[in-house]
Structures are given as C-alpha cells and as structure tokens.
What does this fold into?
Amino acid sequence: MSTELETAGETETMTVREALREAMREELRRDEDVFVMGEDVGTFGGVFQVTGDLVEEFGEERIRDTPISEAGFVGAGVGAAATGSRPVVEVMFSDFLGVSMEQITNQMAKMRYMFGGKTEMPVTIRTTEGGGQRAASQHSGTVHTWFAHFPGIKAVAPGTPAAAKGLLKSAIRSNDPVMVFENKVIYEQEGEVPTDPDFTIPLGEASVEREGEDVTVVATQRLVGETLELAEDMADEADLEVIDPRSLYPLDTETIAESVRKTGRLVVADESPLSYGTHAEVVARIVEEEFFSLDAPIQRVGVADTHIPFSPDLEDEVIPTGDDVREAVDQVI
Amino acid sequence: MPPIDMGTEEGRIEALRRMYRIRAFEDAAGDLFADGELPGFVHLYKGEEAVGVGAAAALEPDDYITSTHRGHGHCIAKGLDTEKMMAELYGKANGYCNGKGGSMHIADVEAGMLGANGIVGAGPPLATGAALTAHRNDDDRVALAFFGDGAVAQGQVHEAVNLAATWGLPAIFLVENNQYGEGTPMEKQHNVENLSETAEAYNIPGFTIDGMDVTAVEEAVTEARKRALAGDGPTFIEADTYRYEGHFEGDHQPYRDEEEIEAWREKDPIDQFKQRLIDRGELTEDEFESIREEIDAEIDAAIESAQQADPPEPHEAYEDMFAEPAPEIAQFAELPRADGGDRR
It folds into this structure.
C-alpha cells in the first residue's frame, strides 16, 4: 500500500470512475474558478460517465457541453486558463487529441515559456486511453508518450482509484498544464480512497504498490493491477516489487532507481507502443544512473508497434497483460 | 499610454499618434532587419495601422486581445511599451518575453495582450477562452481576436467562432483582410467575395468595413463591444486593409506589383486621418511634425536601449517552463557549461 493511504486518514471504497468524479466535485466546490467542459460532459454525464451527475450540483455554466470541436474547445480552455480560469477539459478519447494538437503543443505548452514566464497555464486535460473494448484503432490508443515527450506539459496516468483522485486534484490545483490519461478499462476497478478533501498526490512522485526483493516491475494504468495480481501468483517463484510511476512527466526516477539498487532487475510494462516510447525513457534513466546495479538485461512489455485491431482475437494478441509481464519476469530471473 | 476616446480631440490626436508610433517602430524594425541587426523573422504591419488602433480605441484597457504574426501594431495599439518591445526584437533579457519570444510572440498578459502568434488561426480559440473567462466572471470585459484573411480558411477559426456564438460569449472576431495569405491572394484562398459573409453560418452579425479608416474601425468595434456586453454574443468584422510590405521582411513578392501597392498607399490610414484632423482644425502640419519628432526620438531611444541591454544568461534557457519546475529541466540550469564556465 502506498504511503499516501497509510497517512491520509479515513478512506472509502470506490471505483476509479467515482474517484475521478469526487476529485472534480471537491475542486469545483473549493474553487469557483474551476469548471469542466467537453463533449457530453453535462446531462449525458460523459461518454464513460466520469462526470456523471456533476451538472446537477454545479449547473450548465460550470459543467459545459461543447460542440464536437476539439481544437475549438481545447483552445478555449487554454485561453480561459491564461486569463485566470481553471478549466478541466475532457477529450472523449485520446485518439482525438490529434484534432487539437495545435492548441496543446504550440499554445498550451509554449505560452508560459515564450512569454518569459509571465503567464500561468492552469489547464487540466482529461482523456481516455487503452484497448480491450473491441473499439478498433481510432478509439483504443494509448498516446501519453506524445505528450510526456513534449516540453511544457505535465502528464499523469493513474493506476489505482487513490492515484486517480489524488493526481486529478493536484492537476486541477496546479498552475501548469497537466494532462490526465485515464485507462478506460479500469474505470470499474475498486480500491480505498482517502475522503479528506485536501488529500492530493504530488505530481512527480511514484508509488511503491508492493515491496519485493527480486525484480522491480514498473507498471502503469491497467497493468498496475494485473502486475499486483501476478506478484501474488508468482510469490513462490520471485518476489516482485511493483512501482506505479503515476506521473510520467515529471518522472520519479529516484524511487525506481532505489528499487533497482535493491533488486538488480527491471521490467517496464506500459500499454503504449514500444519504439521510442515511455518504456524507453524509464529504461534510459535507469541505464544512465544504475547500470552497475543491473544483474540482467531490462525487459519491456508494451504494444509491438501496431495499432489496436478490432477483431477480439487480434486485439487480445496485441494488448499486453499480466501474462506478458510474467514472461518478461521469467526472462530476467 | 493614455486611453483613446475618439469622441474627443485629445483622443483623436492620440489615435493618430499611436498609428504613427506603429509606423515608426516598423520602419525602424524593417531597417534594422535589413542591416542584419535583428535575429529571426520580422513580419510587418505597415499599412494596417487603422485596424489595430481603431479596435484598441473601442476597447477598454482591461479587455483581452489575441494577435497574429504581425503583432507589433496590436501591441502598440494596446499601449505596450516600445522600449520593451524593441528589446524583445533584439532577444534581450529586458524584453517583454525575456528574449524567449521575439517579434512573433510579444505578449503582455497583464495588459490583456495574449500574445502575437506564429500559428495562423491559433488566436481565435484563445480569444474564445478569454471571453469565456470574462463571461464566467461577469466582469464587463470582452475578448477581441485579430486574425488575417488567410486564417479564415483554418478549421480552428471556424470552431472558435462557432463555440463563442453558440455560448453567446463576449467575443469579437476581427479579420484583417490585407488581401494576401502569405504569398497567395485572397481570391485564390476563399470562394466568397467578402469574408464577413461567413458570419451567416453562425447566425451572428457580420460586416465588411474600410480598414484604412480608423474611425470606421472604431465605430464597428464599439458596436460589437456593446453587443458583447449586452449578452448578445460575438460579432464578425472584416476590415479591408493592405499590407505594404511582404509577408516577411526579405519576401521578394512575385505575387504583386508596385502599382497595386501605390494604389493602396493613396488611401494611407495615417495620411487620411491626419488630413481629416487638419481639415477639422484639430491639428496643424507643425503639430504633426512635432508628434513625429517626439515619436521618432522615442523609437531611436528604444533601439539604443535595446542595443545596450544585456542578453539573457544561458541558464535562463532552462527557466520559465513551469510554475513548479520539473527536476528534468531544473538539473540543466545547474550543470557546468560545455566551455567549462559556470552557467550561473
């Protein structure tokens, strides 16, 4: 269990979806400058029902349905943030972020720097990632690498309900642009979540979800839960230490490095394409800092540079699971 | 800078001064670029002064604007300081953006100037967002987007206008139709005669006005501002104007001839308005001469100051990325320089 939960006081069992909604509800109550906008976030409750009933408490001025126009409303979020609002912008599927890429990369990410630090950019963009719903490749992508790579953007990807709540609250409170990548397959996943409205998780802090001696597995999003299950299944063969980096940029290199110093073995599991990606960044940092702590070559678990296919047989082939993590662990021990 | 109230003689003189300040700043910037003094690209606004100043005269100091590649005119119209602007053109530490923005990105968010912009069509969504803040705060502010005729072909401009219209936001969309999108004439980029016709699609008012006449611009934007504050939503204004210089300094301009440029120069916004003030007995040639001398001296001083100003320190390249810095970048500010010197 992560340290936040040990020190956060009372907790309640909730799903990732509920945790995200509670994070927004609490921040909407706390700060009048916060509002939510996106396609179908109001009465419809969000296509994955994450915004749910928020419109009933906060009304249509603060939970705003937008036209289907990502460049327009993401850009409006950027302009609103530059003028003192704190927008939470929902982009229904991360695959659609490409439609608003200009406003994200050239405006949101660059304004503060280009203006010599003389503006803040307190915008949060929430979006959904991940395959497994037989939705084919335009509704199943995992694209956080694009944004974690791009200077000027902070990117988080929670793997548990507590992380979902704590990170989204930090994102909303941050004066920097933060993109929150939610894996849509784990919206129903349950866990203990602190009820204190001031509970947040700092951006840039990883969580050791399970302590172990033999192999460090850095896992993200859905693969956090699957790796924790795997760790129990494999307890007789290898003692896995499971780390959820939670924040992809900034990335908590030290927590991972410390673990590798102990275990000497590293597997990185993330549902994004393998080439030039999120895995590579974790691996590069560990090789730079902990090369001589490594007792075996590092293994990566991800999508083998394909798009996500439609047919269930094909999709199951490409989406990484706990079984793939097991194979990688077998390689390093 | 004092506000511009076109209903008073002082205001009209101030409008003329501000148009001339833009012209003088840009004449200087063009010369400095040609002399190899200024790094990067320079896109001049000369010829379009009436649009920026007419719009600024109709706005209150708290209102927001977004700008374009040709931002110098909008900055000066909004009242920004030419010394800090010139320092930015030189890439100096005391420039508006501490040398990180340059000519194409001058901004002063405090003053409501949300940035010149290197991306055609990127300003209108930002203005829609600023108008959304104004609407949510109900603080009697409006947001005006300056954009060019070329930008009207961009999808994000349509999305921004549609969003502002649908939500009834206090936004004003002001197209500066300077007849060319980079090197291609307006009629090769659009299938309408007047860009203001597009307003029909959003069910908002659309007007085409004489963008060489500062009074016409001021009147149109004043009406649009009233509408915006009354909760009646955005207005789409097309100001017909002309870019005297190329798309960028150094553009060899095979797409037009001197005759066309001369024909537009006949309608020069500064000459026209100056003559009108003289005809009304509000200004004499001598008084205009002293305005010229005063502003020319201001620009000369801005250049001298910028030339002498300190460049940014190398470590500043790693600053200003975030309100709460990421360790990934912060470490570079602390590393020793490649030449063995100390970054700090």
Observations:
- The first helix of chain B runs from residue 9 to 34.
- Chain B touches chain A through 53 residues (CB under 8 Å).
- The mean pLDDT of chain B is 95.
